[in-house]
Structures are given as C-alpha cells and as structure tokens.
Amino acid sequence: MKIGITNDHTGISTKNKICKYLLKCGHEVFNYGTNTKDSVDYPDFAKKLTDAVLDQTVDYGIAICNTGIGISIACNRIKGIRCAKVNDIKEAKLTRIDNDANVLALSAHMPMYKIKDIIDVFFSTPFSNMERHKRRIEKLDKLK
Question: Could you tell me how far CA 127 lies from the centroid of its own chain?
C-alpha cells in the first residue's frame, strides 16, 4: 500500500516513528510533511497530502499536528477528502466502514502503541459499501 504522511513542526518525531513502522509493515511511504522544528502552517502541508490522495499518488494519508484537529479541518476543506481525527481503534474501524475515510488524522502526542493499533485497524478495514453510507458520502461531496 502507498501511504502519504504529513505533519507540522510538532509532529516530526511522531511522523518519523510512524514512517519506520509503516516501512516495517511493507508499505511504501511518501513524506509530505516538514522535517524541521521551525514553526509552519499545517494547512500548507495538509494540501500537499490531500493533492497526493486525490491524484492517487498514494492510497491513503496520515496527517499529524499537535492535537490532530487543526490538520483534520484543513484536510476536510478539500473536496473528495474524508479525513477522520481518530483516538482509538473503534473510531478507526468505524470511520473506514461507515465513512470510507481516506485520511487519518492523529495527535502528535498519542503514544506509539495506540498509533500502531489504530493504523493497523484503519488500513485493514474495508468500506462497507452499504447504500446508506454511499448516499451520505455523495451528499458530503455536494456540500459547499
């Protein structure tokens, strides 16, 4: 699987650990985040990742900032992106089943043992393809 990953300045260490884990799991990883601790604006890096998801350079994305909230908001401003800020494996599973989320947003302060579990569930859970969920996603795409 091709996974894009992005981060702001608070997420460098977490991103690097996640990249290492993803590579160990056999995924191809594309880095769209900053690599310096200089303060940056997360919307700029969210855009790089979402462009890669939409043009199918990557299959899915992971976005990291201090809380995961700001970068998830930025990602969700882009039509066709369904970014979920996830805190546990139940949310990771349900956002794939119900929402067909294509970007996973995480807090830079979440412990790696939780992140690994969330990543494993997120990337192994297929979209349900149920009619009601497809209908809702179509309605999301029409919102302005």
Answer: 15
Extract the tokens encoding 57. 């350079």
The amino acid occupying position 4 is G
CA 103 to chain centre: 3
pTM of the model: 0.96
DSSP state of 110: S
Structure confidence by residue, pLDDT tens digits, 66-123: 999 999 999 999 999 999 999 999 999 999 999 999 999 999 999 999 999 999 999 9
CATH of the domain at 80: 3.40.1400.10
Q: What is the rounded distance in angstroms from the CA atom of residue 43 to the CA atom of residue 117?
A: 26
Q: Which residue range(s) make up the domain with 49?
A: 2-142
Domain count, the chain: 1
71 CB burial (10 A radius; 0-12, 13-18, 19+): buried
